[in-house]
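[job 0412] stage=complex_fold ligand=glycine status=START
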Amino acid sequence: MKTLSYEFSPPKISCNIFINPELFLSDLLIGYLKKFSSKICIITDLNIKNLYGDKLLHHLRHHKLETFLQTIIPGEESKSRHSKAKLEDFLTSNHFEKDSCLIALGGGVVSDLTGFLASTYLRSIPYISIPTTLLSAVDAAIGGKTAVNTVHGKNLIGAFHHPLSVFIDPDLILSSPLQELKNGLAEVFKYSLIFDLDFFNKLNSIKTLSDLNNELIVSIVEKSLQIKTEIIKKDPFDQNLRKILNFGHSLGHALETASNHRLSHGQAVVLGILSESFLSKELGFLTYNEFLQIYKAFENLAMIPTIPNDVQKNDLVNALLKDKKNRHGKIGVVILKSIGKTIGYPYTELFSLEQLETCIDYLLENFQECPFELSID
Ligand code: GLY
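[job 0412] stage=complex_fold status=DONE, emitting structure tokens
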């Protein structure tokens, strides 16, 4: 079993992360819940309910834990104030109290929504996470960023609320669809690009997604979370260093919003990483060769998606202008100094729309569903 943890104070927060096959229905989870909680609600989506939710519910009830299960419709649309209010009504009408506990069983949507629900219900109750996707295991479930979307943009309403613990079972992750693995790998590559050249080289040695087995998943999740927890310990509230975790996410979030979520978070992050690497090259930081290595890494694993052809430049611009990293009307972007390193303090550079124009054009000219010839320089 691999274990990681992070803690900081004030306020005193600690989170334990367990990574091991067969954790999902383990005695460790039961023991943990019995120690911390009188009443439990599993929050999951309809797909995951059928795959794992009902099994978990029966397992916990079999061990005499008073457990309920609530579902949301799969997809980003459920990460809304409306879904949160419905779940709040369920918790209040079933008399959930301060020592009740929520379990986020699912991917990023379930994790962000459940965490935010737990942060405001009775001014905060505990929750634990059981991620079922690689993306959630390496990012959404860890670090306490919880939120819902609004029509004005992604993650605009939220709170920091850390899970008590996270149980990562590689069996669940490996059973997820191929595109889910690619979505998670986008974030895994991000960690390597911002923090660790050796890790990037290791990821580059994965020749095909069928190389991913339990052992490899455990090792890339562990490495990603060593990086993430090291950053969180230094900057839990996203005031400085933690901003580097947003690499690839300024353009990425804009693509997600502008495509109406037809590009998944992971797909948008791949394109966000490519365009923000392109910008880093244009600014004279990344060499052309480094930029090419990043492009090839995604190309080799068939991770580069196309942008739907009805996404207009204006849609991207409007979405970029609503990013919560913006300051004084300028758009915040993390810039790579080299593979494995970002520029230092303040970790995010501010750009005007005019300065980002080549970066937006690069995206639309090279990756939009249309018969343009590919040029990557
Ligand atoms: N997902 C970025 C962060 O946790 O800061």
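Residues 134 and 184 are 5 Å apart (CA to CA).
[job 0412] exit 0
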